[in-house]
From TrEMBL:
Keyword terms, alphabetized: Membrane, Transmembrane, Transmembrane helix
Transmembrane regions: 25-44, 56-77, 89-110, 122-143, 149-172, 208-229, 249-274, 286-307, 313-333, 353-381, 401-419
InterPro entries: DUF6350
Protein name: Integral membrane protein
Signal peptide limits: none
Length: 443
């Protein structure tokens, strides 16, 4: 990018990288703000708010932008007596679906900055981008705080840098193609200087971490599918809530956008539900595969899809994380190297002992990785609505991690044991297919 370009062929001076990073981050901040502002303008223009002033609309949009970036909002005038239960008054339930907007914008900015920088100069562009984005967040928090909504300026300046900085790093890595080109460190050369035992251990643990990622992604996919099926089954109940609200076309559209913003949160809720840990929708409530016990809920259409009462087939959902573990164990058999099993078989000659022990340890390791990732997702997806009982929404990270770790570990043991049989069947099918093609060519 240049500071000036004309038709004479003189392209001017090259733009400093820190300035290019600042412009990219400013562009991302403005676009992400527009994504939040435009639906609110529609509601405001149709008298959807009691306060019709422009100042109220601007502050509300800024507060929503900060919430999308993970900044908690202290609601100072929350009525805690409506349900007779204490509450923190903190709005911290992050719409992870809308958080993808600044993440993707940062991903684009990271690719562009990596394309314009040399390996040892990328930090300049990143420094300018993060500085401007943090200043934008701090300014938004300072301008949009009111007596009713208290905003910590430090949180407003630093927390938006997490999704934005992560998006830039992922985008720059995608553009550069390798970490060595991105940060100037040759990982292959560094590994070559380590001992053979260290490389074997690193390969084993690295494959286990990848298998744990495969397990949690498979479990999350299966849970999201279960959520989609549940929404289809309870579609009439959801429509009934929409009709009861009488929000109109524009209000219903904005409400739908807000619910789509929380769709990743709901997928994590479904993951916790299918694991058996369940989740809460208010203090003292619990939604799990064995039954649902919740108090009064606000009229939000998606709540119409909650499974109620005793569920006859709820325990069948516990098989989803186990199936994800089976896939992870099979993946490890195909792509990983069980160096621990090799080392153990060298030390102890009794194969009847080393094979089960190494497989159980592998299941425990992959299950622990999947559980830690599930706990992290549960921590991100949960939060507080800051109103009455709704100060505790979402799954418990610790119990979710424990349940997922145990179920995925069981599935890994099964998948690693049945994997060779599945591999033989696949090879036999491929051989039969090759033979049929060969016979067809001969004819």
């Amino acid at each position: 990018m240049k500071l000036r370009a004309d038709q004479t062929g003189n392209h001017g001076l090259p733009m400093p990288l820190w300035l290019q990073g600042a412009l990219e981050s400013a562009q991302a901040a403005i676009i992400s703000a527009l994504v939040v502002v435009l639906p609110l303008i529609g509601v405001w223009a149709t008298d959807g708010f009691q306060n019709h002033t422009v100042d109220f609309l601007a502050r509300l949009a800024g507060q929503a932008w900060l919430l999308v970036h993970g900044v908690p909002l202290q609601l100072a005038t929350v009525n805690m007596g409506t349900a007779g239960l204490p509450g923190s008054g903190i709005l911290s339930l992050i719409p992870l679906g809308l958080t993808l907007v600044p993440f993707l914008l940062a991903w684009r900015a990271g690719r562009r900055l990596a394309r314009a920088s040399y390996t040892d100069q990328l930090w300049q562009a990143f420094f300018g981008a993060l500085l401007v984005y943090g200043a934008f967040g701090a300014a938004t928090g300072f301008v949009c705080r009111t007596q009713d909504v208290v905003i910590n300026i430090w949180f407003a300046a630093l927390l938006p840098l997490i999704p934005f900085g992560l998006g830039m790093v992922v985008g720059a890595r995608r553009e550069s193609g390798s970490w060595s080109r991105l940060i100037g460190v040759d990982a292959v050369d560094w590994l070559a200087r380590t001992s053979q035992h260290s490389r074997w251990a690193g390969s084993y643990f690295g494959s286990a971490i990848k298998a744990g990622f495969v397990a949690i992604m498979a479990a999350l996919t299966l849970s999201a599918t279960l959520l989609a099926v549940d929404l289809v089954i309870h579609w009439t109940d959801i429509i009934a809530v929409y009709e009861g609200l009488k929000a109109g076309a524009l209000g219903g559209g904005v409400l739908t956008i807000a619910q789509l913003g929380y769709l990743p949160n709901l997928a994590v809720f479904a993951l916790a539900w299918s694991s058996g840990a369940g989740f809460s929708l208010g203090i003292g409530s619990h939604v799990g595969p064995l039954g649902t016990a919740v108090g009064p809920l606000p009229a939000i259409p998606v709540f119409g899809a909650l499974p109620t009462g005793q569920l006859d087939f709820g325990t069948a959902a516990l098989a989803l994380p186990v199936i994800a573990g089976v896939l992870a164990g099979w993946w490890f058999l195909r792509a990983g190297e069980n160096h621990f099993d090799e080392w153990l078989s060298i030390k102890i000659k009794a194969r009847w002992f080393t094979a089960p022990v190494s497989t159980l340890i592998l299941g425990a390791l992959i299950g622990a990785v999947a559980g830690a990732l599930a706990g992290g997702l549960a921590w991100l997806a949960r939060g507080s609505a800051g109103i009455g009982r709704l100060t505790e929404i979402g799954p418990d990270p610790r119990w979710t991690a424990v349940w997922i770790a145990a179920e995925v570990g069981i599935g890994v043991v099964i998948g690693y044991w049945v994997g060779p049989w599945l591999e033989r069947r696949q090879k036999l099918r491929e051989a039969d297919l090759d033979d049929s093609v060969y016979d067809g060519d001969r004819r």
